[in-house]
Design a protein that fits this description.
Layout lengths: L11 H4 L38 H11 L6 E4 L1 H13 L6 E6 L4 H8 L3 E6 L8 H10 L2 E7 L12 H6 L4 E5 L21 E6 L12 E4 L2 H10 L7 H11 L2 H22 L5 E4 L6 E6 L2 H10 L5 E2 L7 E5 L3 H12 L2
Parallel strand pairs: 2-3, 2-4, 4-5, 5-6
Antiparallel strand pairs: 1-7, 6-7, 8-9, 9-11, 10-11
Helix pairs in contact: 2-8, 3-4, 9-11
Bound molecules: 4'-deoxy-4'-aminopyridoxal-5'-phosphate.
Length: about 350
């Protein structure tokens, strides 16, 4: 159990704010006449979306066995990362900590908010060195630690997440954007034990709905209330809310998609064996591979010539590219090219 008081971590100006309350969204009506929001009376999408995303939260709370008050929905998890930094990190004063290498958006939003971005360098297997973590959190005034598991772009998961929760007096954000592909346990079950934990998930990866831009934060009701306070009232549009609600009707589809992508990942892993230009394939729990190439410049250019787009990580991760799992046709195109280099 961690007894951190969340209020002491929050920026003072944020603590003073009250959440935006739409009267319409916070009351029940039988046959309302809506003349309160300067909308058009015409059309199917003429109304503002539900600012509380009530239906979506109710459904997610059933699926995850949490209360609706423990759920915040964002315009992608990107928005939630931004809001978390804004809530806890005083510009020009506080720092965030992120793994290196990891997902760039943590640093992006922290920099925009004028916070220092401290890097926790991963070891040669892309694991956190616990001693390095202890040293840096003892020395620096860090408000938020972004722990990405499985990590983008390395693909591996972090074990023993409780260690980081127990040894840090700030907010730990466990970004589980790729958790469905990992077969590993989510950190959601740790929420009951750690008031300083925020778990991020998204509909952009395993759910296959990146176009809708919907991400979810799960945390204590206290933290969720803060996110609700700073978010734009209508941050998740009505089409996306409806789309996601429909998708949630069929969880089997998610399981099928995950199963197919994981099977395709293993097929690709097999195909990569023995390909001359590949130096190393790093272990992955996600829907992508980080691969070290013997001549990254050459391979990258040849891929581009065939309009195969991958994510170049060199020089930050020397010689490496990140390739995500496509469908069989796309994967075959990639393999054929790599075999011919
Ligand atoms: N976290 C990680 C680790 C990611 O890789 C991504 C997307 N690349 C995101 C968050 C953002 O996802 P969303 O589409 O929900 O904004």
């Amino acid at each position: 159990m961690n007894t951190i008081s969340i209020n002491t971590l929050v920026r003072e100006n944020i603590l003073k704010l009250k959440p935006y309350i739409s009267f319409r969204d916070h009351n029940e009506f039988n046959d309302p006449t809506f003349l309160d929001a300067n909308e058009s009376p015409f059309g199917k999408w003429n109304r503002y979306p539900d600012s509380t995303q009530r239906k979506l939260k109710t459904r997610l709370s059933e699926l995850k066995n949490l209360s609706p008050g423990q759920i915040a929905i964002g315009n992608g998890s990107d928005e939630l990362i931004d809001l978390i930094i804004k809530i806890f990190c005083e510009p020009k004063k506080d720092s965030i900590l992120m793994m290196n290498p990891s997902f760039a958006m943590y640093g992006f939003y922290a920099t925009i908010n004028e916070n220092r971005v401290l890097q926790l360098n991963l070891d040669e297997n892309f694991d956190i060195v616990k001693d390095d973590f202890l040293k840096i959190v003892q020395k620096e005034s860090i408000k938020v630690f972004f722990l990405c598991s499985p990590n983008n772009p390395t693909g591996n998961s972090t074990e023993d997440i409780e260690f980081y929760l127990q040894n840090f007096n700030g907010i730990v954000v466990v970004d589980e954007a790729y958790i469905e592909f990992s077969g590993k346990k989510s950190s959601l079950e740790l929420l009951a034990k750690y008031p300083n934990l925020i778990v991020l998930q998204t509909f952009s990866k395993a759910w296959g709905i990146a176009g809708a831009r919907v991400g979810v934060a799960y945390a204590s009701e206290e933290i969720i209330q803060l996110i609700n306070t700073v978010k734009a009232p209508y941050n998740v549009n009505a089409l996306s809310q409806e789309l996601i609600l429909n998708a949630l009707e069929d969880e089997n589809k998610l399981k099928e998609n995950v199963r197919d992508i994981v099977a395709e990942r293993e097929w690709l892993r097999d195909q990569f064996k023995g390909i001359a230009c590949i130096g190393k394939i790093f272990p992955t729990d996600a829907n992508f591979f980080l691969i070290r190439l013997k001549d990254v410049d050459n391979v990258y250019v040849q891929m581009l010539e065939q309009e195969i787009l991958t994510s170049r990580r060199d020089p930050a991760i020397p010689g490496c590219i990140r390739i995500n799992i496509g469908n069989r046709q796309e994967n075959e195109k990639l393999v054929t090219l790599l075999k011919n280099i």
